Each structure stands twice: as structure tokens, then as C-alpha cells.
Amino acid sequence: MSFISCKFVARSLQQTGLNHSRRSFKLCLSRMSSTQAVADNEPLPTIHEIRSRIVKIMGASVCYDPKNIQLVKRDHLLKYLPKSQDELPVRSMQDSFEAAIIPLANDLDLRDKMVTVQGFVRLGRFMEIMDLFAVYISLKHLKIPNLPEDLPTPYVIVTVLVDDVTFTSYKAKPDKDIRISGQTTFVGKTSLEISVWLEQLSDGAWERITKAVFVMVARNSNNTASAFVNKIEPGDEREKQIFNSGLERTTVRKKESSESLLVHPPSVAEQQMIHKVFLDTIDKSNPLLGRRILPPHHVWMEGTKQHSVIHLHPEERNLHNKIFGGFLMRQALELAWLCAYMHSKQKPKLWHINDVSFKQPVEVGSLLRMSSEVVYTEKTFMQVCVNADVYHPPTKTTTETNSFHYTLESLEDVEKVIPRSYHEAMMYIDGKRRYDRAMRLINE
């Protein structure tokens, strides 16, 4: 589960303070696929100020004390949480809308952390920033009328899923500011769907970098149980379309979960596909079931694996003394990119991220192991899966914490991957499904 990184919070407080003066950033009138426009010359906060606002809303301490890593007692806030969703006022999409600036033009320290060797922007850093921005949008949506103004929020917001992050062909420049915007687009009883956009002004026009959909869950002040969130009521036809899209995504997620290969066997067409892949590895001159060979320009799937092991220090913790989910997403994305780079032998382009799930919180001090693998290929495209787990050396136990799925493209056709075992065949089919989904979204 994810929240804001304390390392970034401390830096933000130093740079901005809670009364940081807002910058004026010339913005073209744009709907940004959201329900709210941003006017010319409207002053926008920087992402540093957004971080500072979260600290103030949460009333959290940013100092790490290894002798006392428990949260500040928040039992006194439990009484302000509603017993049902009907106790809360209905909110509109505009209520949660916010836009901010990632100040790459003048913040040289931030630019240095975000620039790539090729002179572009590290997409993993974007995931960190979008994650904390989704937390802020969630907090902005929540409203409890009887909460005194001098008290922090009784909510804890955690990220449980990042769904359908689609990147455009535009390559962001590291020396120009980037606009981030977002709003609540759908809610359940205790969950919120947050859509986040990144754009950069180039030659007088706003260029879309990416759009991401985050699924957040509201927890009570002690993070021991779920908490009800405000309902959302669409206003005009545009908002109704956005809301219905969120409802459709929820339905699709449930359908895909029910059709998972962990629940149901592959379809007839998928079984035939795997059988054809198997037949392609049989030596035609000496056909034997127990003897397989690699066709030209093919590799065994297991040969594409790449690994990393990270000792997680307090620097990457969130306000709840767990490891910041944005940090995990950055590490996984960069490992996936390296995996695709080593397989294709060319620097790949990231097009899509699908179904980033947070299954367990990751503790400070853990040993995080990440394993990446090319699970499906189609001409120039590669589908890469990254699994993360926490390993406990004294007991030799492992706990799976996260899974990530990426669609990347090389400049030229890549070697095809061949599954060797039934387990790998299921990963191959799952990769094909995710690749097909990514292609539909990319081509929309």
C-alpha cells in the first residue's frame, strides 16, 4: 500500500513552507480530459506545496525514530468518521479537481533527480509524483462537516491499484515545467478512483505525456478498518460520461478478475495458441515429445529474467512508516525497462502500465526482491512482468507484495519468447491478454 514519501515531505517543507507563495504559470485554456478548465495565468501550486498540504491535512510527523516507529495515537479522531455513507455530503467532480506544477525549469535539484542519461525524464519518477498527487486528490474529495478545522483528517488513504497508465509518443523535456492535474472520477463505498494527467507546454501547445487511473481505499485514523467516503454526483453530460467510464472500468476489473488464469483454465483459442508454440519447438527431423529445440530468433522465457535486491531504508518510508508505494513503482518500472533493454538490445519505449497491485504493505528494513521477465513478444513489442516480494533471511520466508505489468516497444523486431513449463505458458497467455488490452488503449 502506498502513501507520500517522507523524504520528499522533508524536502518540501524546507523549500516551500505551508505558506509558500504560488507561482504564476501561463496556461492555455484546456479541459485536459477532465471536467475543469485551467485559465490563462492562473497561479498554480508546485508539487512541493502539494506535499506540504498533505502533511498538514494528515497532521503527521516527518521525523523517523527507530525507538518508536508507531504512529502518533489517532484514536480521538475515530468518533468523527461516519457510520454510513449517507451521513456524508455528496461531492462533485470539481470539488476534488487540482492542478499543480512540477517545477523542472528552475528547481535544479529536482531536475537532476528526474533526468535520464538520454536527456529525457525518468518515467519512474513520474509514477512517484502521480501516486502522492492521487493521495491529495482523495483527501480533497473527502469532507466531514462536523470535523473541527484544527484537527487533522480521520482518514488514512492507501493506494491498492494503479490501472491503465498509457504514455503518448511525446518525450518530456527535463528543463521545462510539467503540469499535473487530477480529480475523483468514481467512488465506491470505501474506495475512490482518481484520474491523473501529466502535460508539458511545447511550442505553444500542451502535449499529453500520460494519464493514469489510481484506485485508492479510505481507512480509519488508525488504519485498522475501512472508512466510508463521500458519494459523487455527476453534473453535466461530460461528468456523466466520465463517471460511466469509471463504472465501466470497475466492471471490467471484476470481469478480468473472475476470468483470471488463477480461477479458470485458458480458452480453447489460447490452448491452441500454446500448442502451436509447443509444436514450433519440436525438431521436425526427429520429432519427440520430450525433446524441444529453439527455432531461429527465439529465446526461452526463463532466459530473459533480471533481478534486483534492495535493502529498504527509512529514507523511502511514508507517513505511516511503511515503504512509499511510489518508490516501489519506480524501482519496478526501471527494472522492467532494463529487462526489455537487455532482451531487445535497444533502448525501449514504454507505452503502457497495467494492473499495478499492492497486496501487502512493505516494512522499513525489509529485503525487497524484484524479478522481471519478458513474458510475451509481438514483433517490436515486449510484455514485461515484474513481481516483488519481501524475503526474511532468519526464517527463509517470502511474502509477495506487488505485481507490475508493462508494455514496451523496441525500434526493431525482437526475439520471440518461448515458454518451457506449464507455469510459463500461463504467464505467456496472461502476457498476451495484457498486450492486447494495451494495444486497444494505445490505439484509441
Automatic annotation (TrEMBL):
One of the protein's GO biological processes: acyl-CoA metabolic process
Keyword check for Repeat: yes
Annotated keywords: Hydrolase, Repeat, Transit peptide
Keyword Calcium attached: no
Designated gene of the protein: LOC103510447
Domain of life: Eukaryota
GO MF, one example: fatty acyl-CoA hydrolase activity
Name listed for the protein in its UniProt record: Acyl-coenzyme A thioesterase 9, mitochondrial-like
Family in the record: Belongs to the acyl coenzyme A hydrolase family.
InterPro entries: HOTDOG_ACOT (IPR033120), HotDog_dom_sf (IPR029069)
One GO location term (cellular component): mitochondrion
Domain HotDog ACOT-type: 93-222, 302-414
Transmembrane segments: none
Coiled-coil segments on the chain, per record: none
UniProt organism field: Diaphorina citri (Asian citrus psyllid)
